């Protein structure tokens, strides 16, 4: 299968190459795509060098599928051109997520919504993916009424410039800034721009994408998203109010039985999910499972996942795997 990766030289794009290789996706030809300044460079895939090409050239090479992680403006311009050429696009930007005609997919939750006619498929925001994977089985079991989530997001979510800023600040080196503030020894309660309602775009993504993926307007979400100086992944403190009461042992059982979720919850031995342990893994890790004793039918959880993998590259590749298994590519 001919696979194009648009944004192949970026942090997420290169993770997509790694995940495609690790999962042995049936790639017969890789077509790495990047901006004009990177055309001609080479990327390695499974021990072979591939030349980076322009988006135009990639279309002429007729890939079966194109996995995008190149920013919203590139997706808005090029995804329709790839789709018009009969190429299925899986896009990691926010460009198409809330388009009512486009599917927003976490395979374990709503892959069944996909059809062969879907030519542009949206990959959800990283902080949404890891939360929804955990919410979905609990919603089915107990009916979610309201979610309050605070996130602790890795600098890798911003990109290589933010990683460099953190490393420079840690070493006392002046350099380019990805953030308006220092990030080392600090936290920044702003991810993306502020909207008129006082929330950031990142927070409203969690609110709106969760409803779309779970297909239930009754799931009310309020979010505070925060950038912290870590690398391995995003962490989330989640408070969930259910319609029905629950049994903690049953909650643990439901989560442990959920594909892609691993329960790490042994407080007595200080065992709980942490970004350093989630780094470069595909699973979503859940711990600190406990009843909210301030009100009935309410649960507290701690959710950690590698935002570059299940939060982006792996989820996109899993969508491609689903389509490939259906012979729709
Ligand atoms: C972030 N979720 O962490 C956003 C985009 N990757 O910056």
From TrEMBL:
<dbReference type="InterPro" id="IPR005986">
    <property type="entry name" value="Asp_semialdehyde_DH_beta"/>
</dbReference>
<feature type="domain" description="Semialdehyde dehydrogenase NAD-binding">
    <location>
        <begin position="2"/>
        <end position="117"/>
    </location>
</feature>
<feature type="binding site">
    <location>
        <position position="97"/>
    </location>
    <ligand>
        <name>phosphate</name>
    </ligand>
</feature>
<feature type="active site" description="Acyl-thioester intermediate">
    <location>
        <position position="126"/>
    </location>
</feature>
<comment type="subunit">
    <text>Homodimer.</text>
</comment>
<keyword id="KW-0791">Threonine biosynthesis</keyword>
<protein>
    <recommendedName>
        <fullName>Aspartate-semialdehyde dehydrogenase</fullName>
        <ecNumber>1.2.1.11</ecNumber>
    </recommendedName>
</protein>
<comment type="function">
    <text>Catalyzes the NADPH-dependent formation of L-aspartate-semialdehyde (L-ASA) by the reductive dephosphorylation of L-aspartyl-4-phosphate.</text>
</comment>
<keyword id="KW-0486">Methionine biosynthesis</keyword>
<dbReference type="Pfam" id="PF01118">
    <property type="entry name" value="Semialdhyde_dh"/>
</dbReference>
<comment type="similarity">
    <text>Belongs to the aspartate-semialdehyde dehydrogenase family.</text>
</comment>
<dbReference type="InterPro" id="IPR012080">
    <property type="entry name" value="Asp_semialdehyde_DH"/>
</dbReference>
<keyword id="KW-0560">Oxidoreductase</keyword>
<feature type="binding site">
    <location>
        <position position="227"/>
    </location>
    <ligand>
        <name>substrate</name>
    </ligand>
</feature>
<keyword id="KW-0521">NADP</keyword>
<dbReference type="InterPro" id="IPR012280">
    <property type="entry name" value="Semialdhyde_DH_dimer_dom"/>
</dbReference>
<feature type="binding site">
    <location>
        <position position="307"/>
    </location>
    <ligand>
        <name>NADP(+)</name>
    </ligand>
</feature>
<feature type="binding site">
    <location>
        <begin position="37"/>
        <end position="38"/>
    </location>
    <ligand>
        <name>NADP(+)</name>
    </ligand>
</feature>
<comment type="pathway">
    <text>Amino-acid biosynthesis; L-threonine biosynthesis; L-threonine from L-aspartate: step 2/5.</text>
</comment>
<keyword id="KW-0220">Diaminopimelate biosynthesis</keyword>
<comment type="pathway">
    <text>Amino-acid biosynthesis; L-lysine biosynthesis via DAP pathway; (S)-tetrahydrodipicolinate from L-aspartate: step 2/4.</text>
</comment>
<keyword id="KW-0457">Lysine biosynthesis</keyword>
<feature type="binding site">
    <location>
        <position position="153"/>
    </location>
    <ligand>
        <name>substrate</name>
    </ligand>
</feature>
<feature type="binding site">
    <location>
        <begin position="9"/>
        <end position="12"/>
    </location>
    <ligand>
        <name>NADP(+)</name>
    </ligand>
</feature>
<dbReference type="InterPro" id="IPR036291">
    <property type="entry name" value="NAD(P)-bd_dom_sf"/>
</dbReference>
<dbReference type="Pfam" id="PF02774">
    <property type="entry name" value="Semialdhyde_dhC"/>
</dbReference>
<dbReference type="InterPro" id="IPR000534">
    <property type="entry name" value="Semialdehyde_DH_NAD-bd"/>
</dbReference>
<feature type="active site" description="Proton acceptor">
    <location>
        <position position="234"/>
    </location>
</feature>
<keyword id="KW-0028">Amino-acid biosynthesis</keyword>
């Amino acid at each position: 299968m001919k696979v194009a990766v648009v944004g192949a030289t970026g942090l997420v794009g290169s993770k997509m190459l790694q995940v495609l290789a690790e999962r042995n996706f049936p790639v017969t030809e890789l077509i790495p795509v990047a901006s004009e300044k990177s055309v001609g460079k080479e990327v390695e895939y499974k021990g072979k060098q591939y030349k980076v090409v322009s988006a135009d050239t990639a279309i002429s090479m007729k890939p079966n599928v194109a996995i995008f992680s190149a920013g919203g403006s590139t997706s808005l311009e090029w995804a329709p051109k790839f789709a018009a050429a009969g190429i299925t696009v899986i896009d990691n930007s926010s460009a198409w997520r809330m388009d009512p005609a486009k599917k927003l997919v976490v395979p374990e939750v709503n892959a069944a919504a996909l059809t062969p006619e879907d030519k542009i498929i949206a990959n959800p925001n990283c902080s949404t993916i890891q939360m929804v994977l955990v919410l979905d089985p609990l919603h089915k079991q107990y009916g979610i009424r309201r979610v309050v989530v605070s996130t602790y997001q890795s600098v890798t979510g911003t990109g290589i410039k933010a990683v460099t800023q953190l490393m420079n600040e840690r070493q006392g080196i002046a350099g380019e800034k990805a953030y308006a503030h220092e990030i080392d020894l600090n936290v920044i309660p702003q991810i993306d721009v502020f909207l008129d309602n006082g929330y950031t775009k990142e927070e409203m993504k969690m609110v709106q994408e969760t409803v779309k993926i779970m297909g239930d307007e009754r799931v009310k979400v309020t979010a505070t998203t925060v950038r912290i100086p870590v690398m391995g992944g995003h962490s989330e403190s989640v408070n969930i109010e259910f319609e029905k009461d629950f049994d903690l042992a049953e909650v643990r059982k439901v989560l442990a039985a959920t594909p892609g979720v691993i329960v790490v919850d042994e407080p007595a031995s200080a065992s709980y999910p942490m970004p350093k342990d989630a780094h470069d893994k595909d699973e979503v890790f859940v711990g600190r499972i406990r009843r909210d004793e301030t009100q009935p039918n309410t649960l507290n959880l701690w959710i950690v996942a590698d935002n570059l993998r299940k939060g982006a590259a792996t989820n996109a590749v899993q969508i491609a795997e689903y389509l490939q298994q259906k012979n729709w590519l």
